[in-house]
Structure formats: C-alpha cells, structure tokens
Fold this sequence. Notes:
Layout: H1 2-38, H2 43-47, E1 50-53, E2 55-71, E3 76-79, E4 85-90, E5 97-98, E6 103-108, H3 110-141, H4 147-174, E7 177-178, E8 181-185, E9 190-195, E10 202-203, E11 212-215, E12 219-227, E13 239-244, E14 251-259, E15 269-277, E16 288-305, E17 310-312, E18 315-322, E19 325-337, E20 341-346, E21 353-357, H5 359-373
Antiparallel strand pairs: 1-21, 2-12, 2-16, 3-11, 4-6, 4-10, 5-9, 6-8, 7-8, 9-11, 12-15, 13-14, 13-16, 14-15, 16-20, 17-18, 18-19, 18-21, 19-20
Helix pairs in contact: 1-5, 3-4
Amino acid sequence: MKAIYKLIAGVIFVTSLGFIIQSCTQSTAKNDKSITKSKGLTNSMKSIVTTANVTSSSVIQEIKLTGTVEALPNKQIRIPAIVSGRVTSVNVSLGDQVRKGQILARIYSSDMAAVKQEWIEAKANVDREVKEFDVAQSLFDAGLSSALELQQAKSELEAANAQLNRINQTMKLMGESDNATHIVRAPMGGTITERNITANMMLREDFEDALFTIVDLSDVWLKINVFESDIRKVKLGANVKAEALAHPGDLFEGQINKMGKLLDPETKVLDARVEIKNTEMKLLPNMAMNVTVFEELDQVALKVPSNAVVFHNNKEFIVKKNGDNFSMVNVKVMGNASNDKVYIEGDLEENDTVVSEKTLLVFNELVEAKKINQ
C-alpha cells in the first residue's frame, strides 16, 4: 500500500514539475518577444518622426547689450522765440503729429505791431516818393526843371524803397503775422517732442528755450552701450536686432554704421549707433532697448535645429537617423545660431540626418529599448 502511495506522489510531483517548466518556458518566450519588439522604434513612432539635415557655416556669436532710442540730429528742428509778447493760443501738445505749415501757436507782440506800423509808414512814403518822382520826370521832360532836381527825386525814391525793403526783411525774419499777432507754423512734418509755452504766457526778450521741438521719427538712432569687454567684438557693419521693452516681440533690425571714439567717463561704455526704420512710429526718444549684436567668427561649425537637442543626465544628445536605424549621439552645444538653430560638436558630419521634432519622445523610446536589450 505504501508503494502505491509513493507511486502516486511521484506522478503528482513529475506532473507539477512539468507544469512549472512549461510555465517558465512560456514566460521566457514572452520576454524574448518583448525584447524583440523593443529594438529600435515602433512603427507608430517612426510615422511621426520629422528630420533635418546637419549643416555647417561660419559661427555667428551673439552679444547681448542694451541701448536707447534717439532722434536723428538732421531730422529735428527747434523753433526759437523770434518775438516777445503774450501767447494767445497753443494748438498742439507733446507727442502730437504735425504736418508742414500747420499752425502751432499765436503770439500777440508789441514788437510785431511796431514793425507793422513801420511798414505802413514806409509803404506810404514809397507811394508818395513815386508820385513826386513822376512829377519831377514830367517837369524835366517839359524843360521846366533841371537834371539835378530829377536826380534828387530819384534818390529820395530809392531811399524810400530801401527803407521798405529793410522792413520787409525784418518782417520776414519775424515770420508770418496777422496784424500784431505772430503766427508760429511747423517748418516740417513730425512729432512734437518739446513744448515750452502755454496760453496767456508772457514771452520776454531774454526767453532762450525753444517754443517747440519737432522731430521726424520715421528713422531713428539706436544708441548701443558697448562695454569695454565687448569693444573688440562689436564692429562697423555688424548686424543688429533690437527689441523695445515697450513692445516685446517686435524686432527692429539694422547695421552698426557709427562707432564712438571715446568712453563715457562715468558709465565706461562706448557708443555704437544704428539707424533704424520706424515706419509704424513705435519707437520714441529715450525708449530702452534690448540689443543683440552678431559677430561673425573665423570658425566653421555644424548646425542642427534647436529642437533636435535633448538634455539627459546632464548631457546633450541628438538622435541620428541612418536609413531605418536610429541612434543616440552625444554632442556639445556651442551656442545659438540664427533661425532657431544651434552650433554643435560631436560625432556627426554635414548632411547627416537627425530627428528635429518630437525628439524627446524618440529619445525616450530608444533609452527604454536599450534598457530592455541589456
């Protein structure tokens, strides 16, 4: 009987052992199948991969500086006080756009009234001398007067005309007037950037400030503050991009066309200037700007899209594509290039193909596949 029990127990043991071995075999087969599927990228991942070619070019270094907007010296006019008197009206305010010939202000002036009265008297004197000369000419032609009398009448007429011309020149210098009111007009179109008079204000003869300053802001200076450590990098003709703090996202471009020769004794900076188009009138004098100056170095480097670079474990990688194969390549980013690209160093060559979009997803799948295959 004991022998029968031993036989049954042996059968059960062998059967159980068979099930265990079969289970382990199936599990191993499943794991082997998973490893095979994890090699490389899945078809779904391959379908969303976007690639770009590695290119090369001279290295352009970006220098970050600051600057301010200034009006061009040859595009601004200060309108002085030509006459003294009382300001009867002011028609513009700071920041207003004006056109050439527009009336800015009116000033009642006793000086203008006096000159106007002188002109009236001088004009009457000329009219009188013209008549007297005509009479003298008629008498001379009739033989009733001498040549000396005719010459005297002519001299008096010339003197009267000279006096009238002198007063006309004075009135021209004093500007347009309406009787005793001096009219101030804009000599050019532009923006009012300075106004030093108000209605009913009395202007004395010793008033030295400009009544108005008009600036044409269609083109402006960008004055860049170049620190001593950057002077050797910033050169004439260098390309510049600038962004106003008041208009984030709006880029203004130009080239450095003037370099200063002296450091500011207080700030220790050198001025570099860029003439910038300001067609939308967004830039105003004294606005602060963030400036990027581009310096071309005597060095050639590889470039890839910035989205092609992945940061992993304090290292930088790109995913290289070679046919249907994908591999992770350790690189070193040297700096930013234009058009959202970066300069790199690594085991790559020009025209190699790299993943340029969704790179992190591709990289993570390759990392997981590598872990499973190990």
